[in-house]
Amino acid sequence: MLYWLTGLSDGGDFFNLFRYITFRAGGAFMTALIFGFLFGPPLINVLRRRQGKGQPIRDDGPEGHLAKAGTPTMGGLLIVGALVTSTLLWARLDNPYVWMVLFVTLSFGLIGFADDYAKVSKQNTKGVPGRVRLLLGFLIAGIAAYWATLYHPEELQYRLALPVLKDTLLNMSVLFIPFAMFVIVGAANAVNLTDGLDGLAIMPVMIAGGTLGVIAYAVGRVDFTEYLDVHYVPGTGEILIFTAGLFGGGLGFLWYNAPPAAVFMGDTGSLALGGALGAIAVATKHEIVLGIVGGLFVVEALSVIIQVLYFKRTGKRVFLMAPIHHHYEKKGWAEPTIVIRFWIISLILAIIGLATLKVR
Hints:
- Helix content is 64%, strand content 2%.
- It has helices at residues 21-51, 76-90, 96-122, 130-151, 176-194, 202-219, 222-228, 239-257, 266-283, 287-293, 295-314, 324-330, 335-355; strands at 159-161, 169-171.
- The protein is globular and about 60 Å long.
């Protein structure tokens, strides 16, 4: 919205700053951060009053989690509110990729909100049936995948870009749409599975989001893409505004989610943020790089899949408990130790993901 102030500029005054994506990204970050600090306490108080007993705690989970009973959930409203407000304020609203990512974020956030509401109101851990969630998720992802493909340059449409390999595009034809749908839904559910300890999910989401924001800015500039030998996707640079808002909103939320958490993000936040990461990867043609940058989420999801399949086949478990962060809890690791070490792993993976921009 503030971008239109450039119409007041003669090219050499303050309003000219609004032409620059980097300046507006900084504004989006600060807006989202201040939003989180201002609205965090009143939102938590409202959630605490409305929810009473807070998020239901699984009886079969780690024993230490029983002490978290009464902690309110749906804290994802704070993050989503911060990043949507900052994006609408600072991004160019004529950019189709911005609206596509916002559409996925809000839609998955609504699914998560319905799930959280069902859990809190019924005081059980079941929520919305998994099949319903997946069906709605794939429907939203299908719309987003087609949306992104519609605005991709013709030479990139329905094609998968392979990292490291220079000028290599895999023509998937119509199969690209279901592939992109899987990326978005998979990212949403992988982040959802990771959100099991205080502060565990939000920092890796911020790291992955920040990394994808840098990638979006790079592939949206023709001079950068020529230097880096990556595919040029005009318009994606504006996604940096969204990821800056995500980072600022995430920090604001982490202030209250740091151990011991005053609020959980819930499915409202985890599904929305995971879906957003997947949507950004599809928009920027970096779907495979998302698997590297978000490698922690991949491992968390795989640990659940392996556990379920192996147990059905043998009646035995590979991990003491899945997702894998609970395995380390069962092994006696302290919660802050698991969280901080997983943050470190996320940062390392993000650096490796960024390196794929240059390694050709």
